[in-house]
Fold this sequence. Notes:
single chain; 2 helices
Amino acid sequence: MTEKGRKQEPPLTLDVSFGEAMTRFVAVKPKEVEESIERSKTKKPPQDDPPRRPNALSAG
Length: 60
């Protein structure tokens, strides 16, 4: 298999220093992460939501 036709995303880059990134990482509380994961499991997928704005072409 060749990967000539496969498009890859550019590598992730952050505009913060290593020290600041580590400080933020250490400040995260594991309980908050667990709660966030549980909330994300209960949310509806985006395709189930109604459109936010009516389509201008169909509003004749």
